[in-house]
Amino acid sequence: MVIGIDIGGTEIKIGVVTSSGEIMDFLKLNTVTTTDKGFFKVLIDTINLIEEKHPNIIGVGIGIPGTLSRDRKTAIDVPAIKELNGVNIYEKIKHAFPRLLIHIENDANTAGLGEFNFGSHEHENGFLFVTLGTGIGSCAVISENLFTGANGNGMEIGHLPSLQNKKLEQNIGRIPFMKYARSKYKQQSKDEILWKIDSPKKLYERAENGDKIAISIFDYMGILLGEAIVSTIRIIDVESIVLGGGLSGAIKYIAPSILKSFDKYLPEYYISNLTIRKATKGNDAGLIGAASMIYKTQNKIEQLIK
Amino acid sequence: MIHSKKVNNVTIISFNGMESLDAQNAFRIKGELKGLINEKVSKVILDLENINFIDSSGFGAIISALKTAKRAGGNLKICNASENTIELFRLMSLDSVFEFFDSEEKCQSSY
Predict the structure, then answer these.
(1) Does B82 touch chain A (CB under 8 A)?
(2) Are strands A11-17 and A23-30 parallel, antiparallel or unpaired?
(3) What is B2-103's CATH number, 3.30.1370.10, 3.30.750.24, 3.40.190.10, 1.10.820.10?
(4) Does B91 contact A42 at a Cβ distance shorter than 8 Å?
């Protein structure tokens, strides 16, 4: 058994994960309260209690919402939990649990690994995972290995240049995207309630009811996202695209304009086997993906011992 | 199995043959606790003597029972929780939401 930890700006999810990606015991801690009480004390106490119930725990995999040192030990910049900046997280946890394997990774990467290892889709020749939420995160797995770039913090699709001299996530991250939606309704609808629309879910429901403005707003997202994915495919040449995060629920309205970008910018070679699908592991992806890193290392160790 | 008894207008609920309140049993426990607590039974003691782990689903069931008891004008207090279990309440920042007692008698007399 492995403990998976998905650290977010709002909550910290902790669960015992089996080798097939099932979550057995699950705890959710408030991030602010945890930080106030002493981040590592709470984390270590929680792991201790779980380990008492599950003495067969072999390791702890942790997803962090920020950049990490190349050796995956120290947090460089964690905007949501500034207390972690510059802290050697690996040493803190390893010191408390010397027997256990410890792995730390960026949270978009752990979510991608969760989908790659435990999601319903097969990914034979490389995999690109894009999360559409407050920010736009991404992860690539190539030849079954996480692709992180030379220094460990590559694959930031949300930071690619986009419309109006902005980064992609400054255009289609949840907040700017809903701001765009409101501006479109203000221009094109007399219904003043829609001028204040603030939830992607409500926007999706309107699209489902045939609202052409809502559909065109998702189309805008698809165009910008499609252009960024095209650039990424040209660099890493993957065939399987998976969209996760809250906004991925609207994939049927986003995907058509992404496909238009593919047709416009990519030759047949890239498109022939390209698939674009919705993630299947939802909010569990980060937690189980963090745990999957430990299982992978354990498998390597077992292969070496054989 | 959930066992309940009534002493001096206080309902004492205990868990026999269960070591943890988790996703496996929380849904059933939540339903059973809700069924046990009503307008006539609102002073409740949860005896956690046999429980050594509670996950978020288990906490959800306990909080739901507390809400039901409070809506009926009563309360839900906890007795015989192990150090580990109390620590879990503390880690989940729920230690200030519940009152803990080290024996059923002390818990009863607090009502």
Answers:
(1) no
(2) antiparallel
(3) 3.30.750.24
(4) yes
Q: How far is B7 from chain A (nearest CA, A)?
A: 33
Whole-Å CA distances, A33 to A43, A81, A301, A305, A306: 12, 12, 37, 43, 45
Does B92 contact chain A (CB < 8 Å)?
A: yes
In this prediction the ipTM stands at 0.72
How many other CB atoms are there within 10 angstroms of residue A196's CB atom? Answer: 10
Best CA proximity match to A104, nearest among A8, A27, A7:
A7
Whole-prediction pTM value? 0.86
Q: Which residues of A touch B52 (CB under 8 A)?
A: 52-53
Please give the domain boundaries of chain A with CATH numbers for all domains. 2-112+283-305 (3.30.420.40), 124-279 (3.30.420.40)
User: At residue A123, does pLDDT exceed 90?
Assistant: no
| Nearest residue to A116 via CA among A156, A144, A154 | A144
Contact with chain A for residue B22, Cβ under 8 A: yes
Provide mean pLDDT across the span A98-119.
95
CB distance from A49 to chain B under 8 Å?
yes
For residue A306, pLDDT beyond 80: no
A-B CB pairs within 8 A amount to 41
A38: left (phi over 0), alpha (psi -120 to 50) or beta: left
Helix (H/G/I), strand (E/B), else coil: B11:
strand
The helix/strand/coil state of A11 is strand
- Distance CA(A109)–CA(A87), nearest Å, equals 20
As given in the structure block, the two tokens for residue A3 are 């403990």
Answer yes or no: do B55 and A42 touch at CB < 8 A: no
Q: Is the pLDDT of residue A124 over 80?
A: no
A247, A4, A211: which is closest to A118 by C-alpha? A4
Give the CA distances from residue A3 to residues A230, A271, B19, B37, B46, in Å, rounded to whole numbers and listed in that order. 36, 39, 20, 35, 29
Q: How confident is the model at residue A78 (pLDDT cuts 50, 70, 90)?
A: very high
Average pLDDT over residues A144-170: 94
How does pLDDT run across A21-62, given as a tens digit for each residue? 999 999 999 999 999 989 999 999 999 999 998 999 999 999
* Two tokens, residue B91: 């880690």
Q: Is A124 on the interface with B (CB under 8 A)?
A: no
- A33 and B23 within 8 Å at the Cβ level: the answer is no
